[in-house]
Amino acid sequence: MPRMKKTMIEEVPKKKTSRGKKEIITVTGMRDILPQDQKYWQAVYNSTKKIANDYGYGLIDTPILEYAELYVKSTGKQTDLVEKEMYSFTDQGGDFLAARPEGTPGVVRAYIQHGMVNLPQPVKMFYHGPMFRHEKPQTGRYRQLHQAGFEAIGEDGPTLDAQLILMGYNIMNDLGVDVVVQVNSIGCVNCREEYKKALVKYYKQHSKVLCENCLLRMNKNPMRLLDCKELGCQPIKEEAPQILDYLDDDCKKHFMKVLEYLDELNLPYNLNPRIVRGLDYYNRTVFEYWSADDIEGKSALGGGGRFDGLVELMGGRENTPACGFSLGVDRVVAKLREKETIVPDDYQPDIFFAQLGESAKKQAIVLYESLRKKFKMSQAFYKDSLKAQLESANRFKVKYCLILGQKEVNEDTIMLRDMNGGVQEIIGLGKLEAELIKRLEKYTSEDGVEIIDTDETRAALVSKKRPHTQERDTEENNLDDIGDLSSGFTAIEDEVEAGTPDDY
Ligand code: AMP
User: Which residues line ligand 1 (CB under 6 A)?
Assistant: First the structure.
């Protein structure tokens, strides 16, 4: 590891804690995704994975660090992404590297590097993970952002464009996020040459009122003039010449076909001549996903388009067409939370296993090993107090609690408590798995989908509760410090709330 300068360490911004100590905190624009928030992220990844499977896209992981030249060459030297936002540095060996600002260049590099041109085309891949952009941090704009993206390389037909647009739409739809797809065509290099001239000519007439960025873009990257979000430039943008009027016959035909397929699919889209996308490699079809309530597209949820020249530009085979898109996972997650969408939680256990006494603990840790393979389980075997264990069960909001005490060990039984209503029964260990399967069935809908356990569904289920077989008093079974368990779970809750949990 290189020797760090002392000043470098001291300059790290620190937060003063209530105890007067200084703690190192996250880098500006970067954040932790905590365990309790993971379910939203997993919901997005599960949904992208499902769509990837449905349409035959294979997962690819590319390195987070690549040679900076990859992005300079592909994304474009004069794009904001490369010029202003790329995290780049020279490493200890003298290599000039960059933390990936986007996913497409890495996937194209991998396609070329691994000779995927020899595979049946198109080669369809998807990815997800963090990207890094040194942008001004604000809501919905992070310096470590997360994207899920899809790329199909080696096919030029308009069906592919339409299908990719549909895939992103389907992901949003499956997640319950209402989007309107914004579609445009920016034609090929030839169409754009003519168009850029017309655009610059038009903007020059208004140069006195343009923002600083637009003045720069006029010379450096005229297409980006249409990306400007400055209020003062909006009326000028509104009246600007439209690229669609400059498309040559082939580009026009391609685009008309894409729109025909979208019409056929009844997919809600808006033909938006202002969508140009900021990167150099795009051509022909370009699109973005805007939330239905984001009329101006200030916070697009994703976007993509064709990049027919990129493979060749990066040293791959000539004329290798391609198309793809990426979704901004941070923003999709924010939408799910804003809409209070209920998402399944992979880590939500169904059953908590509590034990009391040394021999019960020994049997419990062994029994748990077979149960965890068949059920979503949780436990706190390191705790001795039953009260503390039940508090954990309560926090997990499990459906059932298994309780093993000395008497149960002696009799080869276990106590099963239905947490939605507090009924408890003694079950022979031999029948336990079958009983649990049967009882968990009531949380599965008729079409086999798991019913998400919320406070409302709990309340509904309590009223549907089945009659129990053998309710009993706990004391006779040696579960001495179980206290008021037999008088209902509320009693345990009260008791737990009143006391201080020992080691949780
Ligand atoms: P892009 O790669 O710029 O086309 O971005 C694709 C999607 O990623 C956008 O539509 C956003 O949803 C998301 N995105 C881009 N930049 C950021 C950022 N700095 N923070 C959070 N999400 C972002």
Answer: 102, 133, 135, 140-142, 145, 147, 300-303, 326, 328, 330-331
